[in-house]
Amino acid sequence: MLASIRLRVAHHDVYEEWEQQTRKDAFVSARHEHAALSEHRRYNVEISRTQMVNSQTALHQRQLQDVQSKLSQFRGIQQQQEQKMRAAWNERNGQLWKRIESVIKLEEDKVKARLEAEQRKREEEDRKRREEERRMREEQERKLLEEQQKKQEKEKKQRQQEHDKAKQEEDQRRLKEEEARKAAQDQAADGAMQTIGTSTVAEDWKKGRELLKKLKSGPMKTVKSDKQMKSIWSAGRRQITPKIGQLTNDTETIKRVSQQLIEIVKPPVPHPKPIYFALLSSLSKAILLQAETEVTAEKRSAIPLAQVTANLLCSVERFCDVFWAKLCQRAGGWPVPLVIPAEDTDNTPFDEPARRKVLGYRPHESAAEYSTRVSGLMRVYFHILTASVDTALDPRFRLPRYWTFFARILQQPQLLEAPVGPEVIFSALDVYGAPAREIWGAQWVKLLSVLYEGATTGLLGDPSRLIGGKSAEGIAARVRVQLEIERIMGVL
User: Could you give the C-alpha distances from 10 to 4, 14, 19, 291, in angstroms and in order?
Assistant: First the structure.
């Protein structure tokens, strides 16, 4: 049994060996075929992926080119539209400035023609007066010579006596003529001061300050305490503000707005006096607020605002007094000009908050903001002084006041050395500096030389007393004054 098992185990079967070998060969062939198929599949997949990527890249490239083409077209259209709009805007802006310049030139020509006519009239009157004086003097000398010749024909004794008597009479005559000449000069000077409304600095300040206090304690208090009056006053005030805001530098607009404001203040049925003065106060405040906001941003806007104000000063009774009081309230002593005193008009001392309020400062207002605002107010005031009107204005708003302003401020170094000083002076020179040279001639040049010295080397040649002081605002304003004087004198 054991031998039979051993024999079977050691038996070599050829078929089984062939079957095993065949199975091995089939497995090797299958492995090679599977590797080849896998490699072929990977190759086909790579080819497909490459083709798809190339196709997508080409598609994206075409889409990018299409988008860039569209963008280029849009940019071209946008540039064309911008060019058209810019050209239209430039044309409109040019026409607007031409109109503005033509109106300004027309008004300047009117003022210049009027001043030239007045100058010619004065020169003619002076010439006639000198001619009459010369004729009278020659006549007197001729008569005196005849008397002397007659006296020489008399006897020597009487001649000496008559000679002494004639000498005594001549001395008396000359003394009387000198007295008469001085009296005539004094009378002419008094008449000229009355004509231009010359008053002292203190008087101008006192008038504005006292009227302001009377307005607050009188008409304004009465109107605010009466419901019916307050309703009428509020309605008028609401009409005034938009009228002032509609102003443009156009003659028709100025006339229309002026007439509308006059009709608001002076209706067919007159307002009671408290309402009338309250409306004058509101009208003044509206004008000054417009000056503080618009003129500080664009100085040309002062021209129509000043012209409307001048028209109102001509037509509205007591408006000059109320406007002056409100101007001094918001600009302090600069319209006069004067240094605010230590005491009020009733001799009440100012404390620091009260003095700051009287100076025109707003609550929490900086020095730079105050300087800019006051210069805007004063620019409107100087335009009022030079405005063309049909009726003589109050002396505080006539052209001679322009000269008076400079004469006064030069006598007050404290104002010149304040930072606001050169700002206000520059506004004045910018408004009427060049025409003033034509009017006042050599005297104006002397005045400008004093200001120029103060802006360059210091007042009286003292470098520590430059106008405007040492603040940044004062230095900038001082340079503007220097350049403006050089422009007026034809240096630039």
Answer: 10, 13, 18, 131
